[in-house]
Q: What sequence folds into this?
């Protein structure tokens, strides 16, 4: 069996669903241990998902940028003898993965959607135009894995905690974090996790009300085009596309969005796409499974009304 | 201040893009300067101009690694406002992954630094073909410099660089000593276009070609040989086809819900 190291950051001692997924995926590949930053009490939660050892980071690590984080993970790799490292697919995790790759001479594969026991990592490239299988050639393979790679399941073990100390040199070239503030949460599902997304663009003209109403009735996340976020109608976190979040939900409802190439790059691998646009020539219709040429301010509220009626 | 901007020559996303050949590499025939690297160039030009530009002793240098055609990305960078360009090109570089690319770029930067130390390297948040965001961070690690990624603002004060960024649901401020590597998002500025004056001025600017041996690298360290990842298989996703398009006749909202119910999405 190979040893697998899962990198987890937990601000509050709990595990997010995609972290539970990483641990579950790790178990399908070998013996799992965890490199844990943040609240060390998350080690208990990790043990519930099969992590036999949790290597915990010095508290000061949170005040430093990616290279210090990578130095910590590299130390955990050496202690655990891991041949595979799994990280989340966030910006911060990709930075850690990148630097870890250089430190270990390890191949790094990002945006992995599934990972086989033989190390074959499936991912899509060129904005979803191709599905590829990538492999790492180094002694260690580093993967950043997207949400939903597996269904999370518990497999409790007796977990052990090992504190890792780092030499001064680990912090030498790291950027310092002067401040870090969590942005307020909307209460809706996160874009990268959501099964359904309702997204609005310039066509909402400053009013996300009808988009949000439909989203809440569907239990959906709210997405947006760059025009909508640039105008400040909704937070940048909601931007879908090349420079926003890349999503692949079961259902993407696009309202008042033309379907520019950079928007499509973030949503065209959705299972079902519905588009509402007043311009019948809008490019978004070329990739829509169901398109409505019409005014979103008529169509969305009517759909919400119908959903409410059906729910009784 | 001496700033090097990393510019990549990438297939134009307005056309269909293809993978081919043994290593499933990207076909680069219809290629352009990666649009996300225009933000890096603009950020460098603004930092330089705020300090008096070239007259104030500042320089902005464009660096690319890529085949012959990549000279066009340098040319465009010079037209937009970079002072000079470096083009690392060698047949052995084809098929380089992020590890090999960052190694080659670090060697090129060491070569450029022989003419005077570099203060800052700025890249884009991701290349529009590789899309990994790995290269700038790996480059920083190879140089032993700090990395500040995904900046939506960048300021230099004395020998320190400060970056604001919004990532993973957090607003952060990062700071490091120079030299450093920064990557910037499309939130940071509004890139300028080459104007007539810039296009004329670019004709007098220099592009320095660099070969692998000039940067001191062996062919086996880069390209498919030096890469730590391989693309074993590549399958083109079937193009999405248009489904049913209706025009609203006053009941499209209801039809939408009927469609969702038929698809078992509600
Ligand atoms: C480097 C770069 C990166 C980018 N990254 C992204 C990205 O990540 N995500 C992204 O989305 N964009 C991105 N863009 C921007 C992209 O090019 C487009 O400009 C943007 O997606 C357009 O947004 P939109 O569709 O909302 O606006 P528009 O293109 O203006 O389209 C608005 C649409 O709304 C329709 N409409 C208007 N009123 C109504 C109504 N009442 N009812 C129904 N329909 C109506 C119109 O017919 C039109 O089709 C990027 C651009 C660049 C250069
Ligand atoms: N071949 C290259 N030549 C110059 N710069 C590059 C090259 N590859 C990547 N970069 C830089 O690294 C950034 C991120 O690219 P990537 O890691 O491929 O997503 C790009 O926006 C460029 O600034």
A:
């Amino acid at each position: 069996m190979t040893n697998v190291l899962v990198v987890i950051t937990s601000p509050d001692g709990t595990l997010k669903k995609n972290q539970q997924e990483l641990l579950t995926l790790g178990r399908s590949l070998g013996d799992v241990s965890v490199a844990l930053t943040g609240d060390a009490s998350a080690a208990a939660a990790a043990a519930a998902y099969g992590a036999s050892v949790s290597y915990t980071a010095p508290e000061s690590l949170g005040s430093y940028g990616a290279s210090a984080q990578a130095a910590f993970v590299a130390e955990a790799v050496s202690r655990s003898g891991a041949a595979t490292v799994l990280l989340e697919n966030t910006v911060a995790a990709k930075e850690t993965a990148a630097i870890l790759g250089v430190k270990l001479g390890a191949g790094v594969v990002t945006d992995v959607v599934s990972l086989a026991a033989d190390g074959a990592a499936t991912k899509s490239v060129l904005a979803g135009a191709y599905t590829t299988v990538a492999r790492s050639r180094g002694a260690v393979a580093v993967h950043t894995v997207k949400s939903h790679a597996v269904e999370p399941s518990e497999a409790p073990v007796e977990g052990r905690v090992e504190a890792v100390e780092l030499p001064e040199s680990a912090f030498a070239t790291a950027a310092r974090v002067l401040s870090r503030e969590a942005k307020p949460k909307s209460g809706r599902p996160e874009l990268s996790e959501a099964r359904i997304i309702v997204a609005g663009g310039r066509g909402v003209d400053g009013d996300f009300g009808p988009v949000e109403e439909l989203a809440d009735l569907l239990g959906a996340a709210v997405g947006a085009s760059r025009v909508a976020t640039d105008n400040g109608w909704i937070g940048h976190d909601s931007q879908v596309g090349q420079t926003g979040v890349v999503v692949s939900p079961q259902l993407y409802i696009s309202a008042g969005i033309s379907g520019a190439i950079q928007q499509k790059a973030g949503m065209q691998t959705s299972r079902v796409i519905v588009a509402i646009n007043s311009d019948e020539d809008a490019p978004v219709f070329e990739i829509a499974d169901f398109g409505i040429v019409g005014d979103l301010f008529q169509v969305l509220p009517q759909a919400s009304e119908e959903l409410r009626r059906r729910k009784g | 201040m001496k700033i090097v901007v990393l510019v990549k020559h990438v297939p134009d996303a307005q056309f269909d893009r293809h993978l081919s050949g043994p290593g499933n590499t990207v076909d680069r025939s219809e290629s352009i300067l990666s649009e996300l690297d225009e933000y890096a160039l603009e950020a460098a030009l603004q930092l330089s101009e705020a300090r008096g530009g070239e007259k104030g002793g500042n320089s902005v240098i464009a660096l690319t690694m890529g085949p012959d055609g990549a000279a066009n990305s340098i040319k465009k960078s010079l037209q937009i406002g970079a002072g000079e360009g470096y083009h690392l090109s060698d047949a052995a570089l084809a098929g380089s992954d992020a590890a090999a690319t960052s190694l080659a770029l670090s060697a090129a930067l060491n070569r450029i630094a022989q003419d005077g130390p570099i203060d800052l390297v700025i890249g884009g948040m991701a290349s529009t073909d590789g899309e990994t965001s790995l290269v700038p961070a790996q480059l920083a690690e190879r140089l032993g410099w700090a990395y500040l990624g995904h900046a939506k603002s960048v300021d230099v004060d004395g020998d320190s660089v400060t970056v604001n960024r919004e990532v993973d649901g957090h607003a952060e401020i990062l700071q490091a000593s120079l030299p450093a590597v920064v990557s910037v998002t499309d939130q940071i500025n509004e890139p300028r276009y080459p104007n007539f004056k810039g296009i004329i001025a670019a004709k007098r600017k220099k592009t320095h070609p660099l070969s692998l041996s000039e940067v001191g690298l062996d062919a086996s360290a880069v390209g498919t040989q030096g890469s730590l990842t391989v693309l074993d298989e590549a399958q083109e996703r079937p193009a999405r086809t248009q489904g049913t398009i209706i025009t609203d006749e006053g009941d499209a909202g209801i039809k939408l819900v009927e469609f969702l119910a038929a698809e078992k999405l509600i």
Q: What stands out?
A: Helices of chain A lie at 17-29, 42-48, 66-80, 91-104, 209-218, 226-230, 261-264, 296-311.
